[in-house]
Amino acid sequence: MDAVLERVEDPELKVFPQGTVSRPSRAEAEAAVRTLIRWAGDNPTREGLLDTPKRVVKAYEEFFKGYKEDPAEILARTFAEVEGYDDMVVLRNIKVESHCEHHMVPVSGTAHVAYMPDGSVVGISKLARVVEAYANRLQTQETMTAQIANAIEKHLKPKGVAVVVDATHQCMTCRGVKHGDVFTTTRQFRGVFKEERVERQFWDLVRAQQPRGGA
Ligand SMILES: Nc1nc2c(ncn2[C@@H]2O[C@H](COP(=O)(O)OP(=O)(O)OP(=O)(O)O)[C@@H](O)[C@H]2O)c(=O)[nH]1
Ligand SMILES: [Zn+2]
Asked: Which positions does UniProt annotate for Zn(2+) binding (predicted)?
């Protein structure tokens, strides 16, 4: 009989995304990897595979560390001393390494994140950290894009937010339909970024080819 997953608040986790379930032990997670190795048709007790469950579980800790990160905390510190700076802040080409919730295989790409400050600004690295916090969880690209926009909107309360994610899904390139080179683009424009003029300025900045390392 399938184990019944009960919804519990794990004290080790700071964030409780919808449906968070009781967390198995490391030994249980390693045993699950041994099961998958046997399912693939190999022998988990042979020398080359002996330490693999340990490595896979360690890798999972890294891939899914976003569940322990709290975007509210990441965006908590803002700076108001900006000499009245009142235009958009755009971070282009933030690296995105994620895993799709349907196949748990890599999704790789980039995100462009912008916001229109309303008085104060946030440390720019924090925007990249918010992208990572959601990328390091299981979700669809659409969900991740909306989550990033929602977090910035909720915690920074800017005049607007724009998030564009461009990514390839290995579940489409390495298996299934096997269509390589397909990029999926998802976008969320909120507040003033819904205005055509502001959206155009955003795209102009995203597409601007500035020399790297230049002034
Ligand atoms: N919308 C969306 N779909 C995704 C994302 N990641 C993976 N998918 C799709 O999720 C779908 C799952 O479809 P299913 O029919 O349940 O699974 P499947 O049999 O493995 O599908 P195929 O990939 O077509 O072989 C597939 O079409 C995937 O391409 C994502 O981030 N967003
Ligand atoms: Zn997938």
From this structure: 100, 103, 171
Report if residue 187 sits inside a domain.
yes
Structure tokens at 106: 């890599």
pTM reported for the whole predicted model: 0.88
Flag whether 130 is in a domain: yes
Distance 182 CA to ligand 2 centre (A): 13
Residue 93, pLDDT score = 97
Interval between CA 18 and ligand 1 midpoint (Å): 21
* pLDDT, tens digit, 9 for 90 and up, residues 173-202: 999 999 988 999 999 999 999 999 999 999
Q: Residue 114 phi/psi, 5° resolution?
A: -135, 150
Q: With helix as H, strand as E and coil as C, how does 11-22 read?
A: CCCCCCCCCCEC
Sign of CA dihedral 116, 121, 126, 128: positive
CA distance 150 to 127: 12
Instruction: Assign residue 121 the CATH number of its domain.
Output: 3.30.1130.10
pLDDT tens sequence across 19-38: 666 788 999 999 999 999 99
Neighbours of 133 (CB within 10 A): 22
Residues of each annotated binding site:
100, 103, 171
Q: From residue 185, give the alpha-carbon distance in Å to each of 64, 140, 141, 168, 190.
A: 22, 12, 9, 9, 17
Residue ranges near ligand 2 (ion) with Cβ within 5 Å: 100, 102-103, 171
Tens-place pLDDT, residues 162-174: 999 999 999 999 9
